[in-house]
Amino acid sequence: MKPFKTLLLTFFIAFTACEKEAPLTFRTVTENFVVTNTITVTNSSTVAQQVSSSELLDMSSNQEISDNQPLILGARINSLSYQITDFTGESNAILSDASIVIGGTQFDIEPINLEAASNANFSFEVNDPYLLEQSSQAFKHGTSSVVLVKGILNTTPVDFKVNVIVNISVAIDNL
């Protein structure tokens, strides 16, 4: 009988001593937001030209984020990539000294042969955790930020799009 009481006592202590797990106080919404920047230069030139295009990344295009804006605790950019699409123009056109700017944080990108990149439908990844974290600060007090693409073209005319794909996780208070 004594071993039974000992076992029963051990069982009782083990299950009553365990604390209940605290429920999560927030939920996370993760989505890929695509911002398309179009760059068009119609005049023909072999002189280098600076170009830029800015568009708005607005997380409130996601209904759950939009409905819960006052409850947003923070946002984090998990990944950033870009693609060159719909290129027309000079076949040897290169975009150099290029960068993508989100919320004041600049991501420098390598020179790109625009026609080759567009034809390959290749996705370029930005893998700098520090810069991704810094650019996340743009969403600290709001759901939108300007995405700027800029660089220098070696020849024109050209017309192309830069699709910037931003994977963002947003923490929303469960209240």
Essential attributes:
single chain; 175 residues; alpha+beta; Jelly Rolls; five-stranded antiparallel sheet; four-stranded antiparallel sheet; 4 helices
Walk me through the structure.
By secondary structure, this protein is of the alpha+beta class. It has one domain: Jelly Rolls, CATH 2.60.120. The protein is 21% helix and 55% strand. It has helices at residues 2-17, 63-67, 114-120, 129-136, and strands spanning 26-45, 49-58, 72-89, 94-102, 105-109, 112-113, 123-126, 144-153, 156-173. Strands 2, 4, 5, 6 and 8 form a 5-stranded antiparallel sheet that branches. Strands 1-9-3-7 form a 4-stranded antiparallel sheet. Strand 4 (94-102) and strand 5 form a beta hairpin. It is elongated, with a radius of gyration of 25 Å. The model has no long low-confidence stretch (mean pLDDT 90).
Q: How are the secondary structure elements laid out?
A:
Layout: H1 2-17, E1 26-45, E2 49-58, H2 63-67, E3 72-89, E4 94-102, E5 105-109, E6 112-113, H3 114-120, E7 123-126, H4 129-136, E8 144-153, E9 156-173
Antiparallel strand pairs: 1-9, 2-8, 3-7, 3-9, 4-5, 4-6, 4-8
